[in-house]
Every structure is written in structure tokens, then in C-alpha cells.
Amino acid sequence: MIRPRRSCLAVPGSNPRFLAKAQQLPADEVFLDLEDACAPLAKEGARHAIVKALNEGDWGGKTRVVRVNDWTTEWTYRDVITVVEGAGANLDCLMLPKVQVADQVRALDLLLTQIERTTDLPVGRIGIEVQIEDARGLVNVDAIAAASPRLETLVFGPADFMASINMKSLVVGEQPPGYPADAYHYVLMRILMAARANGLQAIDGPYLQIRDVPAFREVAGRAAALGFDGKWVLHPGQIEAANEIFSPGQEDYDHAELILDAYAHHTSAAGGAKGSAMLGDEMIDEASRKMALVIATKGRAAGLTRTSSFTPPA
What we know:
Elements: E1 7-12, H1 16-22, E2 29-33, H2 43-56, E3 63-67, H3 76-87, E4 93-96, H4 102-119, E5 127-132, H5 135-139, H6 141-145, E6 151-156, H7 158-164, H8 185-197, E7 201-204, H9 213-226, E8 230-233, H10 239-245, H11 250-267, E9 277-279, E10 282-284, H12 286-301
Parallel strand pairs: 1-2, 1-8, 2-3, 3-4, 4-5, 5-6, 6-7, 7-8
Antiparallel strand pairs: 9-10
């Protein structure tokens, strides 16, 4: 199952008010954060608050994710054990930040497997999201993306990445001054290629100017145009924009469904078993079907409803 992740809302695990509010917001995914959003002294309490929120909250079909701390810290193993033993049945994925090598993913997979076997949870059901946040992680992204069958997404972490390569900018997600092109194009395409080569989703990281929704739309639009599946949102005001930008428009969705229906008809015996055919003034073939299936799948996941139907030619 491919989960919709147009909008991935970050929620501090140490803030009970935000944990409650997030359940009512229309984000596709909510990730409850034990890493950067939690001060060191608040992490222990946040683990238990997250377990309580997962078990007792009404998440309304959202993808439920917990971001643990990275493996270089002393908190990671206890994050995983506390959250999965306490609320594994109500958890969809763990997010692992600052991944640099494939072994870090395999270590999380192994720990999850041990906990699932111990607690009688289905082995392998809990997925993994991986953040690529520095130069080493990007260089190793192909191996990372193939490291575990639990992997579901690759996520770009722009702030740490910008720092890791000494990028000349303090505005996360904005273009650095003095560079005339898109400074993130290579990074995003590199992550996207690794994701698609391994059947994963690709998620763009946050835009920190949270009240500038027009700028958020512009940045998110670039990632969506490349083929990314969604983007982090840090504020409720960004959710609607993300859901819109990473969903196909109604006209494109209708056209994709028409292509699928028309191709299925024309390749059937009743339709003449043709390898290619015309849909109005457009020639369609197997490549057209594959492209249309991408748009149609995203539209269905977004809850779009068809407003047109295919009528076989006489």
C-alpha cells in the first residue's frame, strides 16, 4: 500500500496541546518528533506522551510516524523501544534522521524486528522513513534506499544539509544569494532517482518561513514538478497548500482516467487488440498508460472523483 504523504506535519512530542491539535488537522501524515523539536531534558517525557497520544488519540486515517533521534546519540534505542513496545499497534512508521550509511537503516530494522517478535506484533509491518541530511548521506543514497524492505520514503533534510556543505544561506529552503540557478536541483533529483529506483516515495523537507504561504507554494511547486510525493509542513497554514500542490488538478486526473479506460478498451479483443490508438486527437500507447497511471493513482489517493467517463467508439 502506498500511503498518501502530500503533507507531512511535524509535531513536537513534548507538547500535549500540539499532539491533540494535530489529530484534527487535514495533513496526510503526522510525525511526532523526539529529535530536534524536543530539548534533551524533555525527551523521556515526550516518549511517554507520544505513546499515550498514539494509543488514545483519534488520528482519522492519517499516517502515524514517530521521528526518533539519530544513531550517533544516546537516545535512539530507548526512543524505539519505548514507542514501539508501548504503541506499536498504533504506529505506521519510524523516521530515522541524519542517515549517512545503509548500516544505520539495517540496525533500526533489526531492532524493530526484535521488538515485534517479543511483543507479538506482525514482523515487518512498521515502516521506516529515512532523512538524507548531509553530503555523506547523499553520496550513499542508493545503498541507503536499498537497505531494508521496511523503507517507504526518502526525506530531504535541507537545514542540516545546507550546513554540511557550507551553503551560503541562513534561510532554509531558499536559494543562496549569488547562485543564478536552482541550488537544490541536483540534491532533489539525486534523492528522487534513488527513491524511484527502489519503489520508495520522495518527500521534500520543510520551508521555515511558516507564514509566507506564497513562498511555500513556490518552493513546494518545484519539488512537485520534479515528481516528489509531498513536503513537510511546520504550520497548519501550510497544509492546504501542500495538499493542493501535490495532488493532480481535476482536469489532469479526468484525462488520466480516460487514457487508462481507452487503452484498456483498445488493447482488448473487443477493441481490436491494438498496441496504440487515438483518444480524440491524442495517440496513446503503453507509455501513455504508465504516465496516466501515476496521475490517476495520486488523484485517487487524494480523494478526487471523476467528472467524465469513457465511451468506446462505435
